[in-house]
Write a structure and sequence with these properties.
The complex is a heterotrimer of chains A (612), B (212) and C (358). Chain A is mainly α and 612 residues long. In chain A, 65% of the residues lie in helices and 0% in strands. Chain B is mostly helical and 212 residues long. Chain B has six helices and two strands. The chains are: A mainly alpha (612), B mainly alpha (212), C alpha+beta (358).
Amino acid sequence: MATSAVDHAHTHASASHGPSTGLWSWITTVDHKRIGILYGATAFVFFLLGGIEALLLRIQLGRPDNTFLSPELYNQLFTMHGTTMIFLAVMPLSAMYFNFFIPLLIGARDVAFPRLNAFSYWVFLLGGLFLNASFLFGAAPNQGWFGYANLTSKQFSPGLNVDFWMLGLQILGIASLAAGVNFFVTVLNLRAPGMKLMRMPMFVWMSFITQILILLAFPVITVALILLMFDRFFGTHFFVPSGGGDPLLWQHLFWIFGHPEVYILILPSFGIVSEILPVFSRKPLFGYAAMVFSGAFIAFLGFGVWSHHMFSTGMGPIADTVFSLTTMLIAVPTGVKIFNWIGTIWGGSVQFRTPMYFAVGFIAMFIMGGLSGVMHASPPADLQQTDSYFVVAHFHYVLFGGSIFALTGGAYYWWPKMFGRLLDETLGKVHFWLMLIGFNLTFFPMHIVGLLGMPRRVYTYPAGLGFDIYNQIETAGALLLGVAFLVFIANVLKTWRKPANAPADPWNGATLEWAIPSPPQEFNFPEVPTVHSRDPLWELKREHGGPLPEPQHVSGAGIHMPNPSFWPALAAVGVVAVFVSLMTSHRTGAIGVAAAISLLFFSVYNWAFEPA
Amino acid sequence: MSHDTAHALEHPTSTGLDNRKLAIWTFIGSECLFFASLISTYLVYRPKVLQRGIGPFPHEAWTSPTGQHFEPILEIKLVTIGTALLLFSSLFVVIGLNGAQRGKRAQMLGGLGATILCGMFFVGMQVYEFTHFVREGLKLQTNMFGASFFTLTGFHGTHVTIGVIWLITIFILALRGQLPKEKALNLEMAALYWHFVDVVWIVIFPVVYLMK
Amino acid sequence: MVSRAAAVRRALPLAPVLLLLLLAACGGGYPQSTLSPKSDFTRMIDGVFMTTVYWAAGVFVLVEGALVWAILHFRGKPDDPEPTQTHGNTTLEIMWTAIPALILAMIAVPTVRAIFRTYEQPSGGNVLQVEVTGHQWWWEFRYPQYGVTTANELHVPVGRTVSLKMGAFDVLHSFWMPQLGAKRDVFPDRKTTLWFRADSAGFYPGQCAEFCGTQHGRMAFHVAAEAEADFDAYIKGLQGTGAPAPADSVTGTPAVAATAPSGPDTTAGAKLFLTKGCTGCHALNAVKFSRNLLGPNLSNVGARKYIAAGTLRNTDENLARWIHNPQAIKHGVLMLNLGLTDDEARTVAAYLRTHTGR
């Protein structure tokens, strides 16, 4: 295993720091910035795929009794839409920012385990491809993203659909856990001198808490998926009532993972917004300590509310009351965050650049998602709302209005640092307005149509229930959202042709990444900086009496960076090969698993004994 | 198992803990939830095992519809010995690690060897136990006890096996003289993992074998 | 420019909120709406829900208002002097921790009271017991007090408390009656309960709310709340389908002549029903039939307003279409295409339409 790259300011003769290019350099890269870009590009492709799936669903629901999609295909598409957006889009888009920016924000030269980092990415990529390969077999997962037992049993889902899903999620879980260990250690151990925990940028704090959630939540879903796998492959009855199993156990295990998972999806976005707001209000984050502790408190409570997804299962009045109250309690720290964001803007000098639009849009939309969340924290009200479109509206307000708005804002904010090019402001604002309008047109009517009695996950609905007009508006809004992202792509393509000459600090940033050239050199910091306050760059500029001179590229001679390695990618192939083998028949499966495990051991040993 | 350990020690990390040591602790924290979920599953199904009336059962005698009589299937004596050896192995690995840290080759190899032998005995005991159960008619699919027992103890056994492979690797390194004092951390990490696997068994043993 | 645009943006989400409140007031044209409760149970839920709506609307206006005001009032230019650098305000932060907590307490109190009421299990001689069973993809209703079973259309008397004991035949489903009883999940291995007392007559649609496979989207049902006398007649009719000694007590298929009412000759249809495999899954007897049949009980199918679990209006034409090719209407449904010709399907449909349970 690798040790930290940061601590190697040795006088080894080291690999040249000139830009190495070509496919092989990307496959063997262990540079956190390159891996971040790989995460981002891959996740964005999956995001578009999930978006196209959503558009197909919306077209089907555009009018009553539509036959645009068969029920079988509709069920596959809504399952893949949810699974893709959660595991292949929002989580890895967050991972892009973890990878690229956590080391930069804490003043490190790389993550703690650069090769493990590459391994995480390759496992994620192959896992995503594995899940989507199901479409080639006409057997995409079709049981919903939370795969309630016992519909997932062999008896009721005899096809490969559920197999792809449960194995795909296990693969992705391995990627997340490996990354979780890596970033947990990175944040704790690789901080620049003076970067005390309570001086860390809020994005680092929220990401750190996210890693803790990943580390504690993913093992639980892993166990649930293993039990399901035993049911389907080896004939056990963990979730099969006819054999003595209990389908409700699946729901408990799933949501003990599933609720922390929603904070895994939103906390990094809280962090991004907490970086953008101070910079564009030209004023430090309001109530830093309260922001840290409310984030931690949300994460802690996140493990004690899982059963609020199960109010309609009839757990009894005591359980309902307890989980209702803990759920309502989460609104308090969440409210603290929102008020502190407004407090950050308050009294500032607000600069309306594109990232700020998205950050403010995030707050506005997240408030609505939070309020509807409080509504179904009340179990009696939830007896009407759960599994209806009201819930679909709610979680899109927090995951799209929340996460996607923040992640998009983060893209506009950090694009110059990642690629040395500023995105176009006008197109950026067009993107924002189209997205805001499209988003609200798509998802606000879902509140109404849910309250009017439309259940979620229905492939069609009859005329005469009053759903038609709302669904038409939603479909139109979804198409507009598609256009919004086309504008984003146009923006990227347009600015890509320009020279990469963005300044190091285009926004008057407060954090360390803006002190180094855009894009940063391979070793990030020629000299590891020393930190004296929460907004180190602002402090530096204040001392300097104005903007700092543009940082120059330096040779980096004498800075030891980890060598590229092929073994992480090969180990990832080994991991995924194990799961692919499980899909095949018993005999070939056993041989395949044995071969795959051998490959895995071979790669891991070579990895372990290779000089870093 | 990197060759750069020495450098890491020269340049203290923010917490003062070596990255790899912190990573192992983090991994162990995560694994706690893994075993907690498996143990919870076992506990959820334990009271339901008798409901469907299909044995063999862990602590209850059983007569099959064909009139065949089965004693309670768990062999507590054998497993108690295995448990004791596994616990001793934690002591041995500490002795081995102490030897490694102080550069005492014989102590290191002895401690490590004893640990590996205990671990191999434990795995062997489990292989015997599993095959014995299958011969007695208790398979993974037989009833909820079979399913939750084999899953829980099987995953623990897999962890022990990985630990044994890890320790053997380090043993070979040590034999070749590639585990000097400065690299004792390589062994310390394996030892931390080994202690964790033992501690998990200390929870599993009473839950499965002693609790009726 | 920026400020005006921003103002418009802030106002946007408000418009639908007003629309929502407007909708809450009137429920016409929305027969499945949760906003027009028609029982004591859903009125209670609606009360809790509206409490949350009022608080949420108030908080929404205040917080979004503060946000809008802040971004409009504090907008600056790049060359403006640096604003005062504040880092926090303890008093303020304590306030905005405490006030939301108080508001939540205001919601929590009626919530907890209502939670305990939703779990009440009404008893007493006048309570109508109904056993609900979810199947892929239809609903079975059994009246244990009267010994009859029907499917997809639940009749209940207005003003009498109904106690539901619910389970599932195969996978998880969720029984959702938006206007009468909200929803509760149903399981193959445990029983769940709901209760309600309809306070006005009507024909209320509902549907499955837990994803349960291919045709989850077409797993609807209706609840007919009717006067006590009508309900009594309904039950008597259902009991009547089992009255004559059936020819085949296993499938519950009554002797053809016994139930076919006077009218058009249905002998041919009855014969097809018996010979083409229909009886493998369907019974025409509401009282005595095998509990392992996969298809809905058809004892009073002629009188139901919908067929195929709320998918089609029950007309001669639709019923014939359904019998001829169910897979074309509800793909993946467990009823197979039985290979009946168009004419045969019409004949069977005509026969079934005579089974009105009256």
